[in-house]
Batch of 2 targets.
Target 1
Amino acid sequence: MNTRKLAYMAVIVAMASAVHFLEGLLPPLIPALPGAKLGLANVFSLFTLLIYSAKGALAVVLLRCLVGTLLIAGAPSGLIYSLAGGLASWAVMALINRLFGERAGTVGLSVAGAAMHNTGQILAAVIMLGSRYIFAYLPWMLLLAIPTGIFVGLLCGLCIKAIGGMR
Amino acid sequence: MKKADLFIIIAVVLIAGIGLLFMLGGNSDMPYAVVQSEGKEVLRLPLHGAEQKHIIEVAGGYNTVVIGGGRAWVEEADCPDRLCVKQGEIDRASQSAVCLPHRMVLRIEGAEDTLDGIAN
């Protein structure tokens, strides 16, 4: 890793952590669905995946979950949900990017990532709470992943257009 | 937006739709309100009984649930986000109110025909 990349990655992780933290302060988009949020922090993972590599994106996800959660004092369970969502989302985005390459754009990648993020979090909640009834939230969370995923995907597309050449 | 993007979006809609169909195919027994705390069932009451208030104690906090008169809700809680309270009343099968910090789930099992609920 050269110094230039190290510096850019550090800035990306810092911004992703801040957005992750700030988004956690906002109320959920839909009160009946705890955990329903825009997923703005995914802009940074997706950006890194496309500009650098899947490995780089994994680093961004892991670090922003750690830093973003530690900023909110006294919520260790939050880390488990963040990681479950973040890792599931990273895995599917990296896989689709590898399989489809240029044919899949930021919007598709982001929607798939958002859907898997919500699936991962619900799975974590099912395991943590020991209640499979939480799966009842999953179809709604998947539908919600479409508008939020499209929004984040478009935003990431704009970022890549504007500063994608920085690397 | 590219062709593969559209394909991904349609796939997510289809999976969600299949999930919703499964949920709607619920059973029609007498409805019960069930409280699960830390993975174990701690309370089970008929949903249409007299209104009762119960305090569910967990490590580091409590949730007060009210069950009866055909509905159930979390009235009070000392969890940091209080999302369980904000989820409000539930009155139909497979609905639930969840408190993630306290690992508490209030849900309804079985219910009368959902069509009646709509016709009412």
Target 2
Amino acid sequence: MSNKGLLSGAFLCMVGAASAAPADVQTGQQLYSQCAICHQIGDGAINTIGPELRNIIGREAGVHPDYRFSDSLVEAGADGLVWDEATLDRFLENPRDLIPGTKMNYRGMRDDDDRAALIAYLASFGGESRDVPAAAETFEVAPEILAIAGDAAYGEYLSGECTSCHNSSDADDGIPSISGHSPEYFVTVMQAYKQGAREHPVMSMLARRLSNEEIAGLAAYFETVD
Amino acid sequence: MTLNRRFFMGTAVAAAGALAAPMVRAQGKPRVVVVGGGAGGATAARYIAKDSDGAIDVTLIEPSRSYYTCFFSNLYIGGFREIDSLAHSYGTLASDFDVNVVHDWAVGVDRDAKTVTLASGASLPYDRLILSPGIDFVDDAVPGWSVASQNAMPHAYKGGSQTELLKAQIMAMPQGGTFAMVAPPNPYRCPPGPYERVSMVAHALKESNPTAKILILDPKPGFSKQALFEDGWSRHYSGMVERIGPDFGGENVSVNPDEMTVDIDGMVQKVDVCNVIPAQKAGHIAEVAGLTEDNWAPVNAADLSSTMDENIHILGDSAAQGDMPKSGFSANSQAKVCANAIRGALTGSTVFPARFSNTCWSLIDANDGVKVGATYEATDEKIASVEGFISEVGESDEVREATYEESIGWYQAITEDMFGVS
């Protein structure tokens, strides 16, 4: 719905080798690869599965243009939660401990030093800084694939294969919600599985046998589902 | 059984001279009757009702008011789920999808009159009938055991009270006692199920009764996810689990529920809990309807219609369909293909090509989950597998934990897909 500016179908798939940086930031960059599946950061970052994380330090929780947060996170922000080193540290240690209803499907980072390094990395994108992480790898879908007009009725039928595992609510219990994404984003992620840029046993298998037209159909259908 | 069979044969003969009989309820909406409210039947009822938007009258016949899923019941035995979390009602299917939910037993099918008879005596006409009755047990499959002895030696292979009974018996075992499982021959519901159960029993006993033993008496030379389970048992439950395969008498087992003994190829052993999972067959109503052959109901892959009656579809465990394992996931997948085909036949809506998939997650110990899955397509002969995957021995703790968490997400999703979001 809200991911219109998808930069010609590219998304940050993974953060590559670090540039010259203080040691802990460099460690943090490596640790960020876990986060990069859902959160973009750096120049041109946009909201994808999770909100983009530039200038996260000092941001009020649950507030970011065009991103639909869980009700719990919105409430926490309204109650005064602001992301700083201390609150991020608590959140990242065990997200559901701090925000029980969060959509973020991450079990937490137990090591204190790792969290400090990750937060240092996040903080390096604060203020006016718009540094691009060096050697960021991106996955791009060919424009002609993105241009395919999907048959939403066929997509609705095909979606039966998705809804056995992806539930319709916002609660990301082990398996993320897949409703309400822009077709460009949906197609890009599915093509990343289909073409091997992303791997997951179930998703890779299912995506490989979907044709480009079928993926477009699914994207057209899921855009309409809240 | 004989009576029912005669009932069917008799009506077939009687109707032979009346082929021009008017369609039942020709004036009204087409009627679909679904027998069995599990992963196949509930899903089919919901999808037909939802997608036809009132154009098809859908009736679901299911004796239980609260449906306890068999999938995840092992997690209750292991202490990872509460029994109430496995219970689901049919209220949302009735209120939000206008499915006519009838809590009764289907006891007869008159294929010529196209009616289903209920235990209450009522008769329901159908244009299409879906049978999704799950499994029943083959008589005398394990000598000495019958449904009459299922309290002494529970099968716990249909969800609900049997699951609770087995768990209670496990928790009451004497220190150092023996839990025996008589494992079933192929094919049966949920291929990894008995071995996940062994894992969950071991998990429960490891805390409360660490010197207890688990004995698997198995007629099969190998089993689903064998390497993964055996690796997990040696890592988590070293010395607790012993499996006796067919080479050592596992295929020649009888039981004595009164004495609580098992006879393994002539060697009699006293046990404290005995979980007998007998050989299985299609749910009884499929046999009553005259649609089974060698214990299961053969179907056409494209729409799950019976090879013996084009107006009856058979879903899930009861169907002999080809390569898909008998699982709730498979039944749910088949139900959506079947629903699309029936809707097309009755209302002229587009029928899309069949495609199926299955994934089975199993829990070995806390945060140690594994999975196996495949995609399938319809061929002229059967549902045929296309591509598959399986977890590997030696995966990281993070992968195993994520796999377990996926299974929790799947449970939430599939039960919403069956019963609607309450």
